[in-house]
Amino acid sequence: MISTKMPIYCATSPVDLRRSFDGLAATAKETLSKDPRSGALFLFVNKAGNRLKAIWWDRTGYCLLYKRLERGVFRFPSAVRPGDVSVTIDSTEFAKILEGLDLAKMKTSIGVAMRRAPESASSSP
After folding, report:
1. In the chain, N or C terminus with fewer CB closer than 10 Å?
2. Which residues of 30-47 are buried (b: 16+ CB within 10 A; e: fewer)?
3. Could you report the per-residue pLDDT of 41-63, keeping only the tens digit for each?
4. What are 85-108's pLDDT values in tens digits?
């Protein structure tokens, strides 16, 4: 169903979660400018932040996951650049969001590759 290699796009703005399959697919296409049948997973949160929906296409139809937190809010990643409508995350980050964990307080970097400074060749005495 959900592959660890599938692209996952988090909407950066809240969405009216009264929408179901077709409404969320339309949001993925019109707001996020992504093909909802591409095999990617699209993640949306409501304005209160305590509910989320994920939608993806699995070759035979849309799948929908709906979760409500009993306490707290989902912590979605912020836009990397002003005007970004979605942020790409991986399956590990998706699992942490579903658990209600705050990714910003963790050492994981969301959607940004960390680069190491090159080691100098003259580091030996």
Report:
1. C
2. ebbebebeeebbbbbbbe
3. 999 999 999 999 999 999 899 99
4. 999 999 999 999 999 888 777 644
- Two structure tokens written together for 76: 């979605």
- The vertex-58 CA angle with 26 and 52, nearest 5°, equals 55
Question: Is residue 51 within 8 Å of residue 68, measured between CB atoms?
Answer: yes
If you count them, how many residues does the chain have? 125
C-alpha 30: how far from its chain's center?
17
Place of tokens 């400074």: 117
Can you read off the two tokens belonging to residue 16? 């009216």
Rounded-to-integer distance, Cα 33 and Cα 10, Å: 13
Tell me the backbone φ, ψ of residue 58, rounded to 5 degrees.
-115, 35
Collapsing DSSP to helix, strand or coil, 87 comes out as strand
In this prediction the pTM is 0.80
SS3 per-residue string spanning 84-109: CCEEEECHHHHHHHHCCCCHHHCCCC
